[in-house]
Specification:
The protein folds into two domains: 10-169, Distorted Sandwich (Deoxyuridine 5'-Triphosphate Nucleotidohydrolase, Chain A), CATH 2.70.40.10; 176-337, Deoxyuridine 5'-Triphosphate Nucleotidohydrolase, Chain A (Distorted Sandwich), CATH 2.70.40.10. The strands form six sheets. Strands 2, 4, 5, 7, 9 and 11 form a six-stranded antiparallel beta sheet that branches. Strands 1, 3, 8, 10 and 13 form a five-stranded antiparallel beta sheet that branches. With 366 residues, it is mainly β. The radius of gyration is 20 Å and the shape is globular. It has helices at 14-22, 65-72, 113-117, 176-186, 236-239, and strands spanning 10-11, 26-28, 42-45, 49-53, 73-78, 83-85, 90-100, 105-111, 120-126, 134-135, 140-149, 154-156, 161-169, 196-197, 200-204, 214-219, 226-227, 240-244, 250-253, 258-267, 273-279, 287-289, 294-295, 309-317, 322-325, 329-337. The longest helix is centred in the middle third of the chain and has 11 residues, at 176-186. The N and C termini lie far apart (44 Å).
Length: 366
């Protein structure tokens, strides 16, 4: 059997992430969770305390995160037994994982899928960082997570996993021609005429609804808390207002309300690739798709139990109401090469929560 090619630029797989730990380039304050290393990413875990801060910040090229915490923190919260993080507040939490990266490896972070579906705004911050969610090649030091629940108050604790990070060598993003060839060979999106250009594959919204006419959900205000570590513990209707198709195939997004919708296209990520959902051109309208956007190798892959899977979209309008219509483009899917095929694929070898999904809330709801 032919061996998969080993590339010089791409995303590190699960075995290579384990090697980073073995070689001292990654470290953790406690033993890794059994499923913490994913096919193309590492889940990051909250540390022992959280600081409530006055406002979000970046440390800047000459400062440590702790320097800013000394100036802007309001109080410290013990996370060892769990604590409530309130909506509308900003918290900074040291992570259990720390880095001593080689000069050839950089990293980028994103909220986990479940985090995005709960409308928890998170961003990873490194010392001397001038941008969020980016860790430069050769970085040595701690990592912190900014957390701001937007719709539901949450309970989190030491070890909770709200964010994930990918490691890469070089620039591994597929250009338009390579993406077109891959789509012809592997059918990356189930669409009659896929919109593929140098920015990736366009993803559009499905507002026709399922067999019951269910189009999506809108988050309720003033709910109970959601424990981020508890599966199937919350009643859907206590937290969400279902939205049904009434024949118009459009929806009015109310300002600062949070919606769970679904893509019209089914997504397929072959084993030798990883994908990420990125925002569409912000000039097209006053809305944004939440950027909990990593798609692991094997997502929607038939051999991994997927046969194509919809992308669940976390959507929020900004200052003005905005009409979203069926088929409207809301984001783009960017594909990257893996350095090597992962040892475990999403869905096939892992207890993956969202394989073969359609419209689906986070794992916290019954």
């Amino acid at each position: 059997m032919a061996q998969d090619p080993v590339l010089t630029a791409g995303i590190l797989n699960d075995a290579q992430i384990h090697d980073l730990f073995a070689n001292g380039h990654l470290a953790s304050g406690r033993e890794l969770d059994g499923d913490q290393v994913q096919p193309a990413s590492l889940d990051l875990r909250l540390g022992k305390v959280a600081w409530r801060v006055r406002a979000s910040f970046l440390p800047g090229k000459d400062s440590l995160v702790q320097d800013k915490l000394d100036r802007f923190s309001l109080h410290q919260i013990d996370l060892s037994q769990g604590a409530v993080l309130e909506t509308g507040c900003v918290y900074i939490v040291p992570l259990l994982e720390s880095f001593d990266l080689p000069e050839t490896i950089s990293a980028s972070a994103n909220p986990k899928s479940s985090t995005g579906r709960l409308d928890i705004f998170t961003r990873v911050i490194a010392d001397r960082a001038q941008q969020f969610d980016m860790v430069p090649a050769g970085y040595t030091g701690p990592l912190y997570l900014e957390i701001s629940p937007r719709t539901f108050p949450i309970v989190a604790r030491t070890g909770s996993r709200l964010s994930q990070i990918r490691f890469r060598v070089g620039n591994s993003i597929l250009d338009r021609d390579t993406l077109l060839d891959l789509h012809k060979a592997e059918t990356l999106v189930a669409a009659e005429e896929p919109n593929i250009d140098s920015r990736g594959i366009a993803m559009s919204i499905d507002l026709t609804g399922d067999e019951n006419g269910l189009v999506g959900y809108r988050g309720k205000r003033h709910t109970g808390v959601v424990d981020v570590d508890e599966k199937a513990a919350c009643e859907v209707l206590d937290y969400w207002e279902p939205i049904h198709n009434r024949g118009s195939h459009d929806i009015v997004l109310d300002p600062d309300e949070f919606y769970i919708l679904v893509s019209r296209e089914a997504v397929h990520v072959p084993p030798l690739y990883a994908a990420e959902m990125v925002p569409f051109d912000p000039l097209v309208g006053e809305f944004r798709v939440h950027y909990a956007g990593f798609f692991d190798p094997g997502f929607g892959h038939a051999a991994a139990g997927g046969a194509g899977a919809r992308a669940v979209l976390e959507v929020r309008s900004h200052e003005v109401p905005f009409i979203l219509e069926h088929g409207q483009i809301v984001g783009r899917l960017v594909y990257e090469n893996m350095l090597q095929r992962p040892e475990a694929l999403y869905g096939a070898d892992l207890k993956s929560n969202y394989q073969a999904q359609g419209l689906k809330l986070s794992k916290h709801f019954k």
